[in-house]
Amino acid sequence: MDENKRTRGKWPALLLGLLLIVAGLALAIGGGKLLSLGGSAYYLIAGIGIAASGMLLAMRRGAALWLYALILIATLLWALWEVGLDWWQLVPRVAILALIGIIMLLPWWRKPLHSRGGSLALTASIAAAIVVAIASLMDDPAQIEGTLAENRTSGDVNPAQVAGDDWPAYGGTNAGTHYSSLSQITPDNIGELEEVWRIQTGDEPGSNAPPEITNQNTPLKVNDSLYICTSHSRAMALSPETGETIWEFDPQISTQGADDFSGWAHMTCRGLAYYDAANYATSDESADAAIDTDTTDELSALFADSDAFDIDVSLLGGFETTAANEGENAPSAIISQTDVMCPRRLYLPTADARLIALNADTGERCEGFGENGEVELTRNIGGFDPGGYYSTSPATVTENLVILGGHVTDNSSTDEPSGVIRAFDVRTGELVWNWDSGNPDDTTPIEDGETYTRNSPNVWPPISVDEELGLVYLPMGNATPDQYGADRTENDETYSAGLVALELETGQVAWVYQFVHHDLWDMDMPAQPVLIDLATDEGTQPAVIQPTKQGSLYVLNRETGEAIVPIEEIPVPQGAVEGDWTAETQPRSALNLLPPPLTERDMWGASPFDQMMCRIQFNSLRYEGQYTPPSLEGSIIYPGNVGVMNWGGVAVDPERQALFTGAKYLAFVSRLIPRDEVEEGQGSASEQGLQPNAGAPYAVELGPLLSIFDLPCQSPSWGDVTGIDLQSAEVVWKHRNGTTRDSMPLGLPIGLPVGVPALGGPLTTAGGVTFMSGTLDQYLRGYDITTGEELYKARLPAGGQATPMTYTGADGRQYVVVTAGGHGTFGTLMGDYVIGYALPE
To answer: Which positions ≥6 away from 376 have C-beta within 8 Å?
Structure first.
């Protein structure tokens, strides 16, 4: 009987011992590799120790407990030396080793070892690890606690920077503040917010969808309707109070000669643009009378006897008028047919590169705009691959113009469409001016048969306008390819990756400020510039704020282009690939969300094993800090090209003089591949993987720096929310944002508050609450803008990679609406939902 007991006690110790031997050898081998690269010696030493402990355990020697206790306490001290009391960084270093120690103390393994002293030593080391874990939960070194000021402008806010009962433009207004004066929802009652309606558009991605199909739409609310667009460029009008469909328009987008859409890089529609002739009328009363005329019957009667016709132009409200002839009895004005038939209209950019004008009341085409209600945006562009050119962002509408740029596929070739910006007549669709950075001084519309400068820097985010100053603000992209720039022109170098201000009437350059010199990192301007009147020591200045991927928030005088918040030229790493070059310095704003440079200690993982592999990657790649040039061995780009900030941009409260934003922190790897190593036709349709760069001497391989378990290699937080005082240019508070709820293996519903990336922008209100939905987990969240505290969370049926908006319904309730449709390459659940929330009646 005793012999049977001894035999049964042998096997648990032997099995666990063998596992420790294997694990220890794996750590020792990897640790040796890491040490040879100049990395930490810990993994080699710990691996040898764990393997030795496993051998002793398999032999049922009490020394196994003593040795393992020593390894655990040494690991704990090493971890504290490396990262301090940072819970998320301590976990991969200590947690698994502590768990193994607990297993060793269970009777099946402890009793056969007959070592009371070893058991007490291991118990003490485990207890020490638990105490440190508890202590590390008491404080988060990644957070900043503070309080933003209350109203600082006494209500004296530029109305062009504030949305009210309606939400008439993508960013609330053409100032792009994402701010509403509504205050019904407050920090005190936001917890009562409830879903009041939900619709599905029916536009879900099929098997032939592009890899980066997205639902990033921010609805408009105006004209007593809610207007949305879908991934396949469908437009819909909904009841703002119920979500019920009023009308729907399907442009039947073309595959542009491809078999289907699967080879396209993108497909998205971020929003529509709205124009109402009544907004520009000289008399509200006359405008209302004119707008209510739904047909031309009455006007035709007025024009029947033109010899006797003489009409007061002011009675036409804001309608376009033109002199007909110079005869004494000639008509003094002619009303634009588009204004009469479509006094309220929407502008829909389609994925097959058209701009369509729709009657906002009926969803029918505005026949007087362009040809059959549309303008062909491929005109004068030249050839491109299917899906390689169109406007992913909504147009910007002014009194007389519809202005828009376009997406150009990154890193496909060196012969891509122009990044030209075009301004069309808001009524007729006639091209008024075009600004091509390859030919920046001549904005006269080019002739049929001519082609805009190929491959010139483009503008893919929304454009902002100050109609009072008469300036248009362009967040500029780059000439492709992004990671190799030896062949760029002087104009490319001047206008790329910066902010360009154009004169509204002519398209001529007023000023330019570049934020990345000779960009080799895809750090193009990703978001709509924000216009705000900013109180400074020199008085109130007309400011423009440009959010960026590299983390700086550049604050300029929007009239002159001069810096309001200081911008310093900092030295950056040198040594581009042969044939290319790097700028010696790069501009950095004193107001920035730039994370500290990465070190080996920042490498992370779910366990010591993948953390060690990430350390090996880190030491194998080139990294000398921000702006490390792309290289043949592969360079770490941090922040990566999805940015600290991206197309969602920021929300600015002009009353508080405060800014709210979500910040992302993901490292990417950029590896140049010589042309002779790339097979013909090889490359990815998405913006990750191998990018062909046809025509350049190098292709490029892009992707996030991930562990063997597909987790980010750098430690969390990977996503924060931040509150900034714009008057002092200081970060007042910063908190981790989002959880692992929808990113866990096997779909486990575990929401660890680690801080995750977000794609989508914020909305802030005069009620003191801010909303955002873009995180990897499927939630709409509400925050107290004063402190950043998360006050509200609503589960979404799909990824919410969009920007919420708000408005007042006909019932007097304040609604918050968000699109929940997912994002193909971001990896969130796809869907076709639009959801409305309000306080209980």
So the answer is: 353, 354, 370
What's the DSSP call for residue 112?
A: G
CA-based max dimension of the chain: 126
278 by DSSP, 3-state: which?
Answer: helix
Of 808, 803, 783, the residue nearest 793 (C-alpha): 783
DSSP 745: G
Which are the contacts of 804, defined by CB distance < 8 A and separation ≥ 6? 218, 762, 763, 771, 772, 773, 780, 816, 817, 818
Position 296 confidence tier, pLDDT thresholds 50, 70, 90: very low
pTM flag (> 0.90):
yes
Pairing of strands 790-795, 194-200: unpaired
Active site residues: 522
The answer to whether 658 touches 712, Cβ cutoff 8 Å, is no
Distance of CA 791 to the CA centre of its chain: 23
Under 8 Å between Cβ of 801 and 826: yes
Sign (positive/negative) of CA torsion 817, 821, 826, 829?
Answer: positive
The whole-angstrom separation of Cα 376 and Cα 522 is 29
How would you write 179-228 as a 3-class SS string? Answer: EECCCCCCCCCHHHCEEEEEEECCCCCCCCCCCEEECCCCCEEECCEEEE
Rounded to whole angstroms, the Cα distance separating 277 from 427 reads 9
> Can you say how many angstroms the Cα of residue 576 is from the centroid of all Cα atoms in its chain?
28
As a three-state string, the secondary structure of 334-364 is CCCHHHHHCCEEEEEECCCCEEEEEECCCCC
**Cα gap 63→768, rounded to integer Å:** 62
Q: Tens digits of per-residue pLDDT, 725-763?
A: 999 999 999 999 999 999 887 777 888 999 999 999 999
Per residue, the 3-state secondary structure of 559-618, as one string, reads CCCCECCCEEEEECCCCCCCCCCCCCEEEEECCECCCCCCCHHHECCCCHHHHHHHHHHH
Report phi then psi at 418, rounded to 5.
Answer: -65, 155
Q: How many CB atoms lie within 10 A of CB 145?
A: 12
